[in-house]
Amino acid sequence: MSSNVAIEIKDLRKKYEDKIAVDGINLEIYKGECFGLLGPNGAGKTTAMKMMYCSALITSGELYILGLNAKKNAREIKSRIGVVPQEDGLDPDFTVLENLLVYATYNNIPKEEAHLRSQSLLRLMRLDEYQDRSVETLSGGMKRRLAIARGLINSPDVVFLDEPTTGLDPQARIWIWDFFKHLKSEKSTIILTTHYMEEAEQMCDRVAIMDEGKILVIGKPRDLIAELIGKEVVEFDTNPVDLNYYLGRLRAEGFAYQVIKNTVSILVKESQDGRQAINLIASDKIFIRKPTLNDVFLKLAGHQLRDE
């Protein structure tokens, strides 16, 4: 295992009875990078992350965290990582400060040091004035910030963030994004799952898009966008009667496209001219935009609604 690799995964599998949740993935995550695990519901990303932070047993394959074997060294790994799961799991019987102090005992942090770290994290998260309040009196965004503080109490080498901004209002999401940028500036290794593609595009150095337990692609967001989508997207609305006519014209001219309901997105490659695509369309509702990671996600994973 190279010295610059934080996590190494070889042919990793997880099976629950007759369901394969993670199906033989291979991956290296480097120290100091923010790495995103993306995918639709049921893709296997959360299960993969749970194996990384030793919350789910490995069915087969190899997994190393900071050079430690996850099958043999789970206790030591847990002492060196921080986890912010989907559910905050805060204890309503304790105050804001007590939630951190109690969690610090699980990491064998001396009492005086735990108090200093807790106070520092509460100031960092702008929660210090609420330290004596019950957790149940906090807003959703404040609870999320407290959960993040709890995940950092042991000064971890690797931080796992499982959908950290789901359900938050835009202001709370922006604040947490800014804090993650602070973590990145300190060269922290961050593994992130999110359903917000703009979040992944902004935050992640590299991403892996998963579906049905497998990794479909790995790369830098901008590289995946350029390779799989192109330089721009031309969108237009049409009706079911004209849809096949337009798609036939686009195929004949070599344009790739995606269709969601009655909206057609033409994926214009570097070697193509978007004006040529526009000339094929008889519509007064044409929109030209820059491609995004969301386009990559929809191309690879589709756009059908899925349950967990």
Short account of what is shown:
It is built from 11 helices and 14 strands. With 308 residues, it is an alpha/beta fold.
Q: Sheet with the most strands?
A: 6 strands, mixed
Give me the CATH architecture of the largest domain, please. 3-Layer(aba) Sandwich
Shape call: globular
Number of domains: 2
CATH topology of the largest domain: Rossmann fold
Return the average pLDDT rounded to an integer: 91
Radius of gyration: 22 Å
Description:
This protein is an alpha/beta fold. It folds into 2 domains: 5-220, Rossmann fold (3-Layer(aba) Sandwich); 230-290, 2-Layer Sandwich (Alpha-Beta Plaits), CATH 3.30.70. Helices cover 36% and strands 27% of the residues. It contains 11 helices and 14 strands. The strands form 3 sheets. A 6-stranded mixed β-sheet has the order 6-7-8-3-9-10. A 4-stranded antiparallel β-sheet has the order 2-1-4-5. A 4-stranded antiparallel β-sheet has the order 12-13-11-14. Helix 8 crosses helix 11. The longest helix has 16 residues, at 170-185. The chain is globular, with a radius of gyration of 22 Å.
SSE layout and pairings?
Layout: E1 5-16, E2 19-30, E3 34-38, H1 45-52, E4 60-65, E5 68-69, H2 74-79, E6 81-84, H3 96-106, H4 111-124, H5 140-151, E7 158-162, H6 170-185, E8 189-193, H7 197-203, E9 206-211, E10 214-219, H8 221-228, E11 232-237, H9 240-252, E12 256-260, E13 263-268, H10 274-279, E14 286-289, H11 293-301
Parallel strand pairs: 3-8, 3-9, 6-7, 7-8
Antiparallel strand pairs: 1-2, 1-4, 4-5, 9-10, 11-13, 11-14, 12-13
Helix pairs in contact: 3-4, 8-11
